[in-house]
Every structure is written in structure tokens, then in C-alpha cells.
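== Sequence and structure of one protein ==
=== Format: two labelled lines per protein ===
==== Data for this protein ====
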Amino acid sequence: MSEFDSLLQGMNLILTPGHIGLMVVGVLLGILVGVLPGLGAPNGVALLLPLTFTMEPVSAIILLSCMYWGALFGGSITSILFNIPGEPSSVATTFDGYPMARQGKAAEALTAAFTSALLGALVGVLLLTFLSTRLAEFAMRFSSPEFFAVYLLAFCTFIGMSKNPPLKTVVAMMIGFAMAAVGMDTVSGDLRLTFDQGWLLSGISFEVAVIGLFGIGEILCTVEEGLVFRGERARITPRVILQTWARLPRFWLSWLRSALVGCWMGITPGGPTAASFMSYSLARRFSKNRDNFGKGEIEGVIAPETADHAAGTSALLPMLTLGIPGSATAAVMLGGLMIWGLHPGPTLFVEQHDFVWGLIASMYLGNVVSLIVVLATVPLFASILRIPFSIIAPIIVMVCAIGAYSVHNSMFDVALMLGFGALGYLFKKLGYPIAPLVLAAVLGDKAEDAFRQSMLFSGGELSIFWSNPLVGSLTTAALVMLFWPVLARGVRALVGVKRIKVQRSVP
């Protein structure tokens, strides 16, 4: 069956009143999550997870993915109107979005942001549509050594390519590995790190940990900063929308460049935040109006929003085909799939064909629904931010507590959530990244199982990870990514020495 036929089948599956209603609900919840400080897409998805346990997997993933798209759109509202990024990936949007709002062009900036976001997301979905099957077919050749090499590549890329210090990334990852190791050893059946505590026999609840790390941790930091909202007003009319759309085609090259950057950073663990900053820098470098950047240039809104959403959608490609999330939100979704009894990877496309293509089809329709809903509800959600934060903060904490309690109907989970909230707060204050911790917590046990099975096959010989060209290239690429900062520094040093020698040789 071709990709087009599979997509049509997925469209027939999701084009029901119930699924479209779930899209609208998910988008509205996502916009709310993106607008409210202290919440974010990963935490919003984690909060919804307990509510999806009784739902069909297709309905559940539609709700969660649409919440994700809505959260990305919601982050743009706060960035442009209040100069407060609702999402980390929306920081670059504030550089020109807020100056445009101050100049009375808030509606134009929002329309450009939302439209660019839709186009970027559609490029990411097209990539997912036409590459996912081929990548899954390629991954069907994988055995335990290949899967471990892929996991190793993901971990090493986070260490070597992250903007955070490598040591801090490693520390965060080690904590995630320790979390994944708690409970019963899947190979031997022995108990590990339980300390004779019955509540640790089943391991640490992933949902509770994520709610605490992202939700409570963000709230504590926001309360400490003493957040005050000072925003601009916006009224989006059909006339403004049409006038803005008429201007946008002239920026097609910036759109295309930003979409490609976003897709690349989504597939690799760079994520939407890195993609938005990179595309903004490239847009400023190649723009004819580079002096206007930072003063209210519309291209400075288009570039980061396009890359942000392209990265957000394309991050699902490695998650579905290889079981490796490309962002923190994708990692939370990966945990949700496992809770529903689904196992992301190449076999998912064979065993759960309807689920996969239902998800891909919902991404097309969900992003269009997101654009319509967000354009219609901007004034409503902007007015929410004028509520004093002293009222909003307790409500967010209460929602987090309800979400943690509903996982196992246990007050202990609420206490555990608060403990992880304190850890998230410390991570924020000390500059430690949370995404590597979440990645290691989700993939740690799978990577361990693949490694131990590989060792059983080879009799303990590490040479199995170079036993064929495929696994050898993956392992070598992982080591290159791990030592990339050192290699890059060495290359720059060599280039500098050569330049000095050339300059000295010139009379």
C-alpha cells in the first residue's frame, strides 16, 4: 500500500465528529497550556495522559498531538503580546513580535506567526508522510546491536550537540538512567534500587515525574521571579488577515529555509528551541532588511515560527520509526504510547497500521484546525493573562496535583510529584537541562536491554558493535557526536594555525 493510499485510509478513520471534536478540545487546552506561564507542552501532555487510559489509542494520540500544536500556537500569543515566551521555543519570536505589537501591529504579527507555523508544520508532516515508511522498512533490519547503537547515537548527540555544558547534560542523563533502573530487572527478574520499599517495585511513575519536573519546577521558578504581565491588545479581523496573507508570499525563501532547518533539528535531538534560534539568525543574515531585525521586522516573526513548528512535527519521525524522541514533548508521547501497550519502532507500522496513519492524517487536519481556532480565540486567551499571577499559580499547582493523583489514585504520587518539582527547580536554578533526563528515563531500560542482549550474543565482546557496516557506522557516528565539541575545537585550532602561517608567508 502506497503512502497516499495509507493517508486516505487514515483520513477516513479520523474524519468523524468525535475525532474532530477531540481536535478542537485538544487545541483549546494546548493554547491554554501555552499561554499560562509555568506550564508547557511536555507538562500539558503529561497532565492529559491519565485521562487517555480509557480511550482508544487513535483518539488519545489525536487529543495529545492537538494539544501539542495548540501549545506551540499559544506560546506565540504571549511572546508577541506580552514579551513572555509561553514556550522556550517561542523566545526568538519575542525579538520582533513584541516590537511589532508595541507599534500597533499586533494583529499582523500574530497572523504572520500563526500562518508561518501552519506552513512549517505541514512541511514537517509531509516529511513524516513520505519518509516514515521507508525509515521503518530500513529499521526492520535492526537487531539488538543496531538498536543499542541508535540509542547510543541519541544519547551522544544530546551530549555533544547541546548548548548546555556536556558535564551537566551527562549528570541529568545519569539521573534519568537511575530512574529507569528502579524496579524489576527485565532480563534477570531481580529487584533493583527498591530499598525494600513496596511502592518502588513497579518503578518510578514516568507521568508523575514529568508533571513534577516541568509543572511544579516551572511554577517555583516563575513565583521566585515575581512575574508581572504588561501586554498589548490585539483584535484580529478578516481584513487584517487577508492583508497580511497578501504580504507573506514575498518571504517564500525564508519560509523554505526555516522549514528545512526545523525539519533537520526535529529529526536530530536539537529540538524546536534550537531550530527557532538558528532560523532567526539565518533570516537576519540573508535578509535585505537586516538592520530592522529586533525593531519589528515581520520576517523576524516568520522565520522562528516556521522552524519551531517544523521541528515539532518532524520530531515525531524518529519517535515512531525508531522509538527515539526528538524533543521533550515527543519523549512524553513515547511514554504514553508504551502505557497504551504500543511499542514505537519499525514494527509499529506493520502491527498498528491504522494507528500510525490515523496519527499522520490527524496532523494535517489538526494543524489547520489549530490555525482557525487560535485566530478566533486570541483576545480570549490574551485576557487570561491579565488575571493576577497570584491567582493563576495555585490553580496550576492544583491541576498538577490532580493529574499526579489520578495516575494511581495515590497521595504518595502527589508527594513524589512535589519531590520531582523540587528537583526541576534545582535544575533550572543551576542550569541543568531537563530534556536529557526525560530521554534517559524513557529509553534507559530499552537501551540497557539491547546492550545486555548484544553482550549475550557476542559473549561479552564489544566488537559486536562494529560487526557489520550498519551497526559500525551508527556506533562510530555516536562516538563522533560524543566528542564533537573537542573535534570542532581541534579543527578550529588547525584552521587558525594555517591562517597565521599563510599571513606570515605573504610578504
Remarks:
- DSSP finds 22 helices and two strands in the chain.
